[in-house]
Amino acid sequence: MPFIPHSEQDIEQMLSVIGADSIEDLFDEIPASLRCGDLEKIPQGMNEMEVTRLLRDRAAQDGLPLCFLGAGAYEHHIPAAVWEITTRGEFYSAYTPYQAEASQGTLQLLYEFQSMMASLMGMDVSNASLYDGASALAEAVLMAVRANKKSKSRKILMPVTTNPVYRSVTEAIVNNQDIELVAVPYDSETGQTDLNALDSFSGEDFSALVIPQPNFFGVIENVDALTAWAAENKMLSIAVVNPVAMALLKPPGEWGQTGVDIVCGEGQPLGVPLASGGPYFGFMCCKQKHVRQMPGRIIGRTTDLDGKEGFTLTLQAREQHIRRSKATSNICTNQGLLVTAATIYMSLLGPEGLKKVALNSHKNTQLLRNRLQAIKGVKTVFNAPNFHECVLQLDMDVKQLIDTLAREHHILAGFEVSAHYPELGNALMVCATETRTENDIEQFATTLDTLLNG
Amino acid sequence: MPFIPHSEQDIEQMLSVIGADSIEDLFDEIPASLRCGDLEKIPQGMNEMEVTRLLRDRAAQDGLPLCFLGAGAYEHHIPAAVWEITTRGEFYSAYTPYQAEASQGTLQLLYEFQSMMASLMGMDVSNASLYDGASALAEAVLMAVRANKKSKSRKILMPVTTNPVYRSVTEAIVNNQDIELVAVPYDSETGQTDLNALDSFSGEDFSALVIPQPNFFGVIENVDALTAWAAENKMLSIAVVNPVAMALLKPPGEWGQTGVDIVCGEGQPLGVPLASGGPYFGFMCCKQKHVRQMPGRIIGRTTDLDGKEGFTLTLQAREQHIRRSKATSNICTNQGLLVTAATIYMSLLGPEGLKKVALNSHKNTQLLRNRLQAIKGVKTVFNAPNFHECVLQLDMDVKQLIDTLAREHHILAGFEVSAHYPELGNALMVCATETRTENDIEQFATTLDTLLNG
Amino acid sequence: MLIFEQSHSGRASNAQLPQDNEALASLPADALRTSKPNLPEVSEMQVVRHFTRLSQKNFSIDTHFYPLGSCTMKYNPRACNTLASLPEFTGRHPLGPSLHGQGFLSCMYELQGMLKEVTGMQAVSLSPAAGAQGEFAGVAMIKAYHDERNDTARCEILVPDAAHGTNPASAVMCGYKVREIPTGKNGDVDIEALKEAIGPQTAGIMLTNPSTLGVFDRKIKEIAGIVHDAGGLLYYDGANLNAILGKVRPGDMGFDVIHMNLHKTFSTPHGGGGPGAGPVGVSKRLKPYLPVPIVGKKEGQYVLLDEQDCPKTIGRLSAFAGNAGVLLRAYIYAKMLGREGMSRVADFATLNANYLLKRLMSAGYDAAYPERRATHEFILTLKKQAKELDVTAMDVAKRLLDYDFHAPTTYFPLLIPECLLIEPTETEAKETLDEFVDTMAKILDEAKMQPESLKNAPYSLPVRRLDDVKAVKQLDVVWQELNQ
Amino acid sequence: MLIFEQSHSGRASNAQLPQDNEALASLPADALRTSKPNLPEVSEMQVVRHFTRLSQKNFSIDTHFYPLGSCTMKYNPRACNTLASLPEFTGRHPLGPSLHGQGFLSCMYELQGMLKEVTGMQAVSLSPAAGAQGEFAGVAMIKAYHDERNDTARCEILVPDAAHGTNPASAVMCGYKVREIPTGKNGDVDIEALKEAIGPQTAGIMLTNPSTLGVFDRKIKEIAGIVHDAGGLLYYDGANLNAILGKVRPGDMGFDVIHMNLHKTFSTPHGGGGPGAGPVGVSKRLKPYLPVPIVGKKEGQYVLLDEQDCPKTIGRLSAFAGNAGVLLRAYIYAKMLGREGMSRVADFATLNANYLLKRLMSAGYDAAYPERRATHEFILTLKKQAKELDVTAMDVAKRLLDYDFHAPTTYFPLLIPECLLIEPTETEAKETLDEFVDTMAKILDEAKMQPESLKNAPYSLPVRRLDDVKAVKQLDVVWQELNQ
Q: Which residues form the Glycine cleavage system P-protein N-terminal domain (chains A, B) (predicted)?
């Protein structure tokens, strides 16, 4: 009986205290007609040794190809200390800190996380995380609709340069509340949001403008202009940013004249492994004035009976377990364990380290871009500065190229941009973080060259 | 500066307190002529990301072949909990528990280890570990010479069935103290220590008889007869045993009329990974009357100022840091971290689990033996019961066979017995623990069959 | 001490720094950051020491009995973590081709199958990131179903008053109005009230069974009939699935859609508040609407099915495929339990709860529903003690911490005054339950003889009782000194 | 509570049990065990909870400043553990063919090279499992050297009185008599006494430099000359190598053989008392005697050299190749330090020690050698306080524990009365040293104003001061109830 500590003697004694003849008796309030039989489609149990062998075999099937793929999930070096500490039982197997006095470890850590994220984003406040970057954007949209008291609109301006999957997720989450996402096109030369096109919306009533930085193409947006435009047009501004990039690029709190209202994004680059897409965590920061509209857990510092500093869940009146149908969101859990990892990661990297991660990623992507566009049949699509991703056009079917490189060379070549942007033709988006070496880049380039030009 | 926390400002302030102009000044008592220059043969440092890539590449070079090799180190399933807990910083990065009050975790654990080992061996007392099985045997020999007050001899009877490497190590460690190891031959039919040959030593003065169980060939020795013979001849008896086997086989404390005097062995099978041979740990148990002659750390239970139970290093008067040149041994460290793993392992397995590990290993080895000896060109060498290893004779050069199976099939076929026992011809010793499946055995057999018979 | 208070300008964890780099000709100056973010400047050892010591300030399953009702705090097998952390699993890019993912995807495919079987549903999507997201997905599917049939007058979701707060919140997220159904005095749903509330405006009902009151609603088939007859659908909140695993299946009770909390029933770690995983299972009629991606099989290969494969899907709920690493842990756990292990979970969770309830009643505590069987959890009410001794459920909870027990859930469900919701789970040994009873008895004595020891508890933790009101009024959620 | 006290007949960690098995026809009944060993019968969660909670009762580097002199308790980088635990490394059989070991062996080969370079020796064997085994190997090589030259009258090893206890014990293990050399009043070896003691009976001398007195012996070249002139060899105890790494090399000082404590200088974990690793390095004349195995290169492949390759070897000291996993961790650490990192270790270990010494002297403590530079450690003597205030070094040590600092080494070296040997290491930040000084000053105040607070310390740990005498007199080293 895996994980059951009861001996036969225990069972007898316990049943006797209960006054039942058998464990089966304890289910006597369930109508007999409902009881299920054996779950035949579930296989027999395995012991840990057997399941270890099974999982190792499965893992070996997947291998570890050389990765030039980003598009929302990035391979960064994660210091060994991060997960050795994060998986300590006291973090790993604790629950939401409802009993604050017995959860000061988690609570202080979350307070430190909020402080780090707010500072990294240049914002006043931060929550303690949401599910992931995409759903965080959906929550930011809902929040903006609630928070923008000046607007009666339930419309949001959403640049097409925003990660297309984030746009889908936002759509799926907000569409039942009659919120409309209005697309803003991009400049086909630069890959940036088209300011002229944006101007055509001036004077209309929108709740908010979404501003990605870098945008999905890896391109640096004119964030100051976009933020200022939103403010002028009485919209809130919602930044969606890569947190590593913010150690290098101007943070949303400093965009335009007054900074954006809400920042959200995907926390994965901060010490969370790729892991087939999750668990990651979404983050969200905002201006102080919006804090009561912000969804998700928030930790506050306070004092105890003796006046000693301590930490506790705060502003719970926003949350579903108190406010039920009037809550700011139905969100109940956060992604505590990932936030634990991210807090340790940011502490280990520090301001200099995180900036260097961003710089090295940028540099490697420049190297990669330069090396690849020198190959016959490869050219760069956009003429604008990029962070650590770059869209290329190829003289070859991209899907087939990705498949061949993966199958025959164990290289993940990049993301098939054409799937979401058919107007770009055979477009491949490549990424190189600080983990890629010059050798890696050369290996990729040589292989690609051979494939294209024989 | 990896792992150095000092800022420039710190350094200045600290030098100012010291009254030195530079760090270099702090080395001014070292004669200048002795100072070394740059260590040019040491490469430049790497950051953690770089060294991670390097080590992953190195690990990938080694692979994970299918293992039928034992000969003193055994692949067992190690529950995940064992090393997740063992490597917790509080165990991993603590030192010898000199300050008992600040080390109750390690001390209580070691006390529990001693209790488990003593019970598993059927002995009165246990120490808290030695380096490994081989050096533990050397220490047992030294201990026996000290402890046997009835004998003036410095001679030890050492069966040839004892692990040949253990015999070499013991020789290397005791030979400077004029202790002589006298070989006892084995019965070529059974692979057991030859009782008739042993009888020829009757009446001579020896300090002790060593008794391996199972012996190096994996064969079950007549331990009762050997122990009784030693007692009759006024020698101490030293058992060298596989600890997993002791969950299934009669423990040394029950051998003969009164049990053996000293037990030692290799602790690796108890939750320690193969890891290229170390760190492992040696264990040692003995009768109560010999406890003050036992080398190595010993933990005792006592009480504190308030009468509360606690644990502390005890019998330290035997040890080198007190007794210096008159110590029972020069040993100073123990293998605490491995003992931590073993204690958790034994707690997880319990009496039933450990017995089942032994049983399954035995069963799998029987399956393997039966399957292999059915192959043309393979036969069993010894006609005696074996535990989880078995010596086979092959119609082929064993060294070449091992090499081919490793190189072309990623199978570790076993141990080349002929290297130490040339009289056995092309002898291969195979091993199957509980981790080998019927499929594994079939794969090995089929491959071997093809190799031998085309 | 905060990590920031150990920060020192110019210090760094140097082994973690990437190499220095040349200037950035390619980035425009006005896009660059000029301010230094106030991340701590500390050494690697300081980081390790700080967070190791912080961790020791937590209660957790690995250190304490944690009978937090409705949260299923059971043992999280270490193997699940170790194996899900194999480098090939943690290193796999979510957008990598399925040929580099057959190992991972095969686990997910099998997990879908096991969850279908154990819930009695027809199809499962693993993608919701947590229970609340599963609820959202479930209600959104109900809406999509009605919408497709142009049954658009259905604007209301019924929710019992004992429900988790997420239920009404999720319904609202989907654009529904919420109508509460009262609980009858025996703990089951008030059938008459249900009949009154239901009508052509009813899109569906969200139910937890066993309910949060710790009892199994015996009239579930009747409820299902009433709702279905009215054209509504039934949503099953899987928070309490641990109680009935392998005993009775939501699909067989008549539910149309269910979410499961894998971090409860399938023992994935709670992680200090997450990550969870909230897969949804559906009956045949809701299958087309399942959120994507779903793991399918095409030409012998495991693949992620997307919007093209599932054109009626309610869409995506997160950027990739949900909390994959959590799902992998749940898969490993399920493989270790196997067929028989599933129903043993319910057996022993129920045995422990009923034993604990009986012993606590003998010790002088009042059950909220003394006539009912406990399921995997049960409710004590301290109404009497509050009145007679002026001690509250919160006081008892805080005092338990002093005795090295995590407190049960307090003040939930809201309809039971001064309540403690207690869920021991199947992985606790009888001795632990006995020690808990002894401690609860001792606390009741203290309540009578020296109530101050409860009112000012805890005494022995890193902090005394915290001022939650101050935390709200003097909001301090970011280290202020950062900006000084 | 002991794990045995949680044991319950019939309970098991069931996921860990191999399958049941048929009877054992092949084993004779009289070879089988009939008694059940008293291993605990507990659930997996009980095991995890018990040992997790036990761990929290330890002080460690990851949680506390641990200035234990002569033990070099510095930060153990987590990457060393993570990387040495890669499945291919932990899964490699020690007798596996070198073709399945080129990755591991290449690391060992490079480690040998780095250790040679940093010590100035000609060859290195990694096989000794710990410092004491390295000492044994070193002295055994000295003996083998003299023996081969038939210089058999050399029966004595000289050892300064300040030496580690392992030095004389190791010499005796090799069959030598030990003669002690006194220390001069400035902390250096008494040269005149050395000259008197030395002679044709001298096999060699065992020295630590810097010595255990925390000072560098300035006359080391003169000592080397005296010993070599008398036909003896010099053994270097590498316990204090951290002080001089990259600054001065034992080979250049004239030593013939050295052991290194990788668990000190190369930051492998102390593990609660081990494992260590004690590689030995030798000058050219001792090279033939190095213990096997040694990693060599043959035909472009890394191989383990054995007795056949090294016929004059003193032999093997453990069954396989020493504490391989420790060596791997040391290799990773050395790779991260690199060339410059090595001498920075000595720089900052020395800076921290001298700073701490100066500040403690200002706080009212007496240095044993106030006129000397501290090396990486230094000695305080509480002789004055013992006399005037009746508080001992042990009292101060125990009181430090109450303030969350591990105590320094006490009562070693034996020749300094009431001493504390303090080694802060290079990985501690200035603030930590400052806090330690503040605490030491506070304790000195307490010693004057309220000496009981020292004498009965510690107060705040899991246990109060333990009765060591009782532990010896009423020897209880195995749980007695086991046999009841």
A: 3-446
In the listed set B312, B345, B378, which residue is the last one of a domain according to the structure? B345
Q: What is the pLDDT of residues A164-182, one digit of tens each?
A: 999 999 999 999 999 999 9
CATH number at residue B271: 3.40.640.10
Residue extent(s) of CATH 3.90.1150.10 domains in chain D: 341-461
Q: Using CA coordinates, name the residue in chain C closest to D338.
A: C15
Using pLDDT thresholds of 50, 70 and 90, give the confidence band for residue D23: low
Looking at the fold, whether B381 and B290 belong to one and the same domain comes out as: no
Torsion of Cα atoms, B357 then B362 then B367 then B370, to 10°: 170
Query: Is residue A33 assigned to a domain?
Result: no
Total domains in the fold of chain A: 2
Mutate to test the interface with D, among C2, C13, C47, C49 (most CBs of D within 10 A): C49
Taking residue C358's Cβ as centre, other Cβ atoms within 10 Å add up to: 19
**Residue A426 sits in which domain range?**
66-76+351-453
Which chains reach chain B with 3 or more Cβ–Cβ distances below 8 angstroms?
A: A, C, D
Residues B303 and B340 in one domain: yes
Sequence-ordered list of residues with C-beta below 8 angstroms from that of B143, at least 6 positions apart, any chain? B262, B284, B286, B290, B293, B294, B295, B328
The amino acid present at A437, given as its one-letter code, is: T
> What fold, for D341-461?
Aspartate Aminotransferase, domain 1 (3.90.1150)
CA-to-CA separations, B32 to B38, D235, D237, in angstroms, rounded:
15, 22, 22
Q: Which helix (H) or strand (E) holds D353?
A: helix D324-362
Residue that is last in its domain, among B329, B345, B361? B345
| CB atoms inside a 10 Å sphere around CB D456 | 15
Tell me how close the Cα of D470 comes to any Cα of chain B, in angstroms: 6
Report the residue of chain B nearest D432, measured CA to CA. Answer: B5
Q: Which residue of A has its CA nearest to C334?
A: A45
In a domain, residue A372? The reply is yes
d(CA B284, CA B394): 37
Could you say which residues from 111 to 130 on chain D have a Cβ atom under 8 Å away from some Cβ of chain B?
113-114, 116-118, 120, 129-130
Residue A437: list chain B partners with CB under 8 A. 53
Q: What is the CATH number of domain C343-464?
A: 3.90.1150.10
Q: What is the mean pLDDT of residues A445-453?
A: 96
- What is the tens place of the pLDDT at every residue in D78-99? 999 999 999 999 999 999 999 9
A194 and A328 belong to one structural domain: yes
What is the DSSP secondary structure assignment for residue C480, as one 8-state letter? Answer: G
In a shared domain, residues A281 and A369: no
Give the tokens for residue B374. Answer: 């059915």
Write out chain D residues lying below 8 Å of C51, CB-based: none
Cite the residue boundaries of each domain of chain C with CATH code 3.40.640.10.
79-337
As a dihedral over the C-alpha atoms of residue D110, residue D113, residue D117, residue D120, rounded to 10 degrees, the angle is 150
Q: Distance between CA atoms of B359 and D315, rounded to whole angstroms?
A: 36
CATH numeric code, C79-337: 3.40.640.10
Residue B364 CA to residue B372 CA, distance in Å, equals 12
As given in the structure block, the two tokens for residue A240 are: 């969606």
- Shared-domain flag, residues A286 and A426: no
Query: Where do runs of H (alpha helix) occur along A256-397?
Result: 320-323, 336-373
More confident residue, D344 or B326: D344
Phi-psi region of A226 (alpha: psi -120 to 50; beta: other; left: phi over 0): alpha
DSSP H/E element including C450: none
In this complex, which chains have at least 3 CB pairs below 8 Å with chain C?
Answer: A, B, D
Asked if D7 is an interface residue toward chain A (Cβ–Cβ < 8 A), one would say no
Distance of CA A225 to the CA centre of its chain: 26
Within a domain: B128: yes
Residue A350 has, within 13 A of its CA and on its CB side, a CA count of 26
Band (pLDDT 50/70/90 cuts) for residue D483 is very low
